[in-house]
């Protein structure tokens, strides 16, 4: 009898064991998809952001070493790398051009398009963003790395969707927002700005479920950045008075007006290039891109040599030195850097706008200081960086939070908020928000042409 019971219970034990194993496997997979995959993706975003920052700096330093004492070499080096970058972008890496933020906005808000994710994201675009933008730094072009880091972060997180059994539009949206926020956070070491940027500029709303994924990605990418690059302030400590006189309202207002107008001019130049670009260049841009790239490279080289090298690169060094008070810039720096930034963006290669915009804002501070010599120069630099970035992006919250975090400028919160709000409103009178307008112009589906009336 006992032997019969033992034989009967053995199959039941085996069934229970298999059931527990299936349950454990299901739970493990669920935990991997819910936690392990997004955490791993965020860690990878942070790692790539730190490496990309180092590679960008090394590439730019290499360019400076090449032309040291021989500025005429820029007329060979810059056009050569510009032509190569344009060729690679158009031949193999379409979708990686520009800062990358318009691509993320298009993926989030464009009408349904089955080809959009393949065209604007993926391993091909990640490789193109890294390689071609580094060629731009090697050529001394006026581009930044922060926008491309946003695009790369979004693309890395979007790639993880392939591991999920059900790929819904909501899942893609969550991953794109999380990767973009993690990318900006790691690029500037500004976690709060990464979240605000994703909400204000990209998502345009706040979803509770997206919130958790986004914050998790920012935390893990930030931890990676801290572990590899340390806890640093992007522009160093901002030293300003604890209290400002009521008269400080005047430089705030003038800063907002100047930044708003110059930012609107920049947006107009990028969005309406068909109006101001000579017709032969427009023809070359469309049909002879390498010849067009050669002209762009020569123009960038001429600006760099003509300004004594002040317009080379992202402008981070110039802005940092001005903020530290160690190296003043020429009075025309804001305009020449503005021109170099427009020309560089017209090349159509991967490259961002954040750092050059902050540098232009720093140059504008010299104008404001000429009108209000009693105002502290570091405070005016913070105001102008905030105002110009807010005017270009028309995202005032993102602008002042970025500058506040990268300078530890908590004592300037109210003046920076006021400047950002006023500058963005002034710019909006003349032009739409740049990233949204570029997304709609370049990546949204074009409406069908109206049918021609039938001939009688």
Features:
456 residues, mainly alpha, Clc chloride channel
Any overview of this molecule?
With 456 residues, the protein is mainly alpha-helical. The chain folds into two domains: 197 residues, Clc chloride channel (Orthogonal Bundle); 196 residues, Orthogonal Bundle (Clc chloride channel), CATH 1.10.3080.10. Helix content is 73%, strand content 0%. The chain has 20 helices and no strands. α1 crosses α9, α10 runs parallel beside α19 and α14 runs parallel beside α16. The longest helix has 66 residues. The radius of gyration is 25 Å and the shape is globular. The N and C termini lie far apart (101 Å). The model has no long low-confidence stretch (mean pLDDT 87).
Secondary structure blueprint with pairings:
Layout: H1 2-67, H2 74-91, H3 101-109, H4 116-120, H5 123-138, H6 146-159, H7 169-188, H8 191-203, H9 208-229, H10 249-271, H11 273-276, H12 279-287, H13 289-306, H14 316-324, H15 333-346, H16 354-371, H17 377-393, H18 396-407, H19 413-430, H20 434-442
